[in-house]
From TrEMBL:
Keywords: Oxidoreductase. This is Aldo/keto reductase. SUPFAM superfamilies: NAD(P)-linked oxidoreductase. It holds the Pfam family Aldo_ket_red. The keyword Oxidoreductase applies. Residues 1-20 are annotated as: Disordered.
Length: 396
């Protein structure tokens, strides 16, 4: 099997084999060393790390660059670490479910590293992800913040559509509190807008839950500017969670001006393009039909995966001389945004946690980011985010 000259990642039509395992082994050693000595990151391409030092390094050593950021303002303010953790893929939409005990321990290692923001939702599983997160993070009560979401109609263990009726919001809140093993939900997002329920009623219900001490803060996901304004007028919104990455920058024009005006934070999900911007997927990639929603996403057809490879190549070309992987470039770019942005990358591999954490120590000038953005602007993104029936759930 041949690889290209940039970090040994896959070409658009290259058949994956054991390359990913090799990458993970390298990432585990390099990432551990980076966490132990973050200053090594910028020179990683040219330095040889001590195997002994790498073996001693641990994910439980918090990187110095893991700073704090505040989402929202006033009574809705929410202080968290600059990088959060998305838990969904540990049990939902990302292939065969990994070993549960392994995921429990990985979540605990992430918490031990200093990360305070963990994101889940009732629909992930459904319920399984909240249960996993609740069990894993119970020993860290008071030290970490778990956010979750409502807004789906889950019956007989299946997603039956959208449901943000007040009685369902209350039902979800009570159940999530038990599954997460917490006294109050730190940030309760509406997962998707419900066209049948006025957003004012949704915000009002969460406001009541806040008064009752069951919820601390209110958030929205994939909401448009008008919806955000209406909700915020009833109950201050702490954060909006929507897809945002170097491949998908629509929020910049669609909602960022409103968020800035109202003092609302932004939590990007899929910050590495559902894995595509890692450079580990191509036209030959296969997705598990039983539990990987990318199989049905237009942007992940073989044709789209091939057509969009220039985005990955640009990250490879940009990262290689700086000793950074495409994923690290993707996260570092988000962390350099002037807005109140807190990415929540997720993974089931400890090596990828190391890799993601190391992005915190990058030191890239704005002029360099401008050059990368100009390069990416030359490429046209192929494939919509969701199939039509799901696209209607997300605000434009």
């Amino acid at each position: 099997m041949s690889t290209n000259s940039h970090n040994g990642l896959l070409q658009p039509n290259q058949e994956p084999s054991n390359h990913r395992r090799n990458f993970l082994k390298t990432g585990a050693v390099l990432g551990s060393a980076l966490l132990a000595a973050p200053g090594l990151l910028t020179s990683a391409a040219g330095n040889t790390l001590s195997a002994e030092a790498a073996s001693r390094a641990s994910l439980t050593t918090p990187p110095a660059a893991l700073t704090r950021r505040t989402l929202g303002q006033g009574k809705a303010a929410f202080e968290v670490t600059s990088l959060g953790f998305g838990c969904m893929g540990m049990s939902y939409h990302r292939g065969p479910a990994p070993d549960r005990k392994t995921m429990l321990r990985l979540l605990q290692k992430v918490a031990e590293s200093g990360v305070t923001l963990f994101d889940t939702a009732e629909v992930y599983g459904p319920f399984l992800n909240e249960e996993l997160v609740g069990e894993a993070l119970a020993p860290f009560k008071g030290k970490v913040n778990i956010t979750t979401k409502f807004g789906f109609d889950i019956r007989d263990g299946k997603d039956r559509g959208i449901n943000s009726r007040p009685e369902n919001i209350r039902k979800v809140a009570e159940a999530s509190l038990k599954r997460l093993r917490v006294d109050a939900i730190e940030l309760f997002y509406q997962h998707r807008p419900d066209p049948k329920v006025p957003i004012e009623d949704v915000a009002g219900t969460v406001k009541d839950l806040i008064k009752e001490g069951k919820v601390k803060r209110f958030g929205l996901s994939e909401a448009d500017a008008a919806t955000i304004r209406k909700a915020h007028a009833v109950q201050p919104v702490t954060a909006l969670q929507s897809e945002y990455s170097l491949m998908w920058r629509e929020p910049e024009t669609a909602v960022f001006p409103t968020l800035k005006e109202l003092g609302i934070g932004f939590v990007p999900y899929s910050p590495v393009g559902r894995g595509y911007l890692t450079g580990m997927l191509n036209a030959q990639s296969k997705f598990y039909p039983g539990n990987d929603n990318r199989l049905g996403l237009p942007r992940f057809t073989p044709e789209a995966l091939k057509a969009n490879y220039p985005f990955v190549q640009a990250l490879l070309d940009f990262g290689q001389p700086r000793g950074l992987t495409p994923a690290q470039i993707s996260l570092a770019w988000l962390l350099a945004r002037p807005e109140q942005v807190v990415p929540i990358p997720g993974t089931t591999k400890e090596a990828h946690v190391h890799e993601n954490m190391a992005s915190l120590t990058s030191n890239i000038a704005q002029g360099e980011w401008n050059q990368l953005e100009a390069t990416l602007a030359k490429s046209t993104l192929v494939g919509s985010r969701y199939p039509p029936e799901q696209e209607t759930r997300a605000a434009k």
